[in-house]
Sequence to fold (282 residues):
Amino acid sequence: MSTKLPLNADLHCHSIVSDGTLTPEELALRAHKNGVQLWALTDHDVLGGQERARLAAENLGMSYLSGVEISISWMSQTVHIVGLGVDHTNAVLEEGLRATRDGREERARQMAAQLDQVGIKNSYEGALHFAGNPELIARTHFARFLVEKKVCSSMDEVFRKYLVAGKPGYVSHRWASLDEAVGWIRGAGGEAVIAHPGRYKLNTMQMDELYSRFKDLGGAGIEVVTGSHSPDQYLTYAKVAQRFGFMASRGSDFHDPHESDIDLGNLPLLPEHLKPIWSVFH
Ligand code: AMP
Ligand code: MN
Ligand code: MN
Ligand code: MN
Fold:
């Protein structure tokens, strides 16, 4: 496999080990069927699916990069940093992720208490029922519960009416820092990538500060083509990549066949003038 060609790389998705609904094996099969040539499973704050994902990919003859998506707090907002090519047995990375996961249970209980106050009962248990990994209880699991209970008709509606700042079920949370996340990823031999930059509620100056600090820490890339960017945003973030000297990444952020608009491997390829993040992995 030449790593320099614009190959069908999908370097961002989630399994039942975090807040996806498919197993690592099911995801590998789906990616392969959809023509993915280089794949990474990037569960939130957890590496428990990495061995299964790599083995499944290898059995299908599909190239694999280990991955993780780390939740960080930056200027009072949650930002996600993807780590690619990390050694998933690295003790410092593992410990950092464990600490990042640790607050999730208490946060979920507080979310449930708020939902209880607006008449939505037993949402902690309800969300837990959807969580393949109880250590990784996420807003996604609460959202699935609210759709199941017909409180909302879609995940989008949930994330407009609940679980977001100013709405019931939102609990602000202190995640890892940018410095920690990039340090853990690089310390484990990987490359750090800013996930879906178009999603953050940060102004231009704050985003520029994020890019600069990330670059200073040794951050290597940003997602340009992702499931949550519009075609206009592909252009916007292609320019950011060039301006800051970042390599570009591509990933669907696939979670579930019914919930996710974009399937594994189905996004447009990266613009050819950008240097793909996978060019550093040989
Ligand atoms: P958490 O890490 O618990 O804060 O949960 C964040 C997760 O919620 C993200 O990884 C997404 O899977 C999901 N999420 C956030 N916003 C939306 C949205 N607008 N639509 C669907 N899922 C979302
Ligand atoms: Mn998610
Ligand atoms: Mn994310
Ligand atoms: Mn994601």
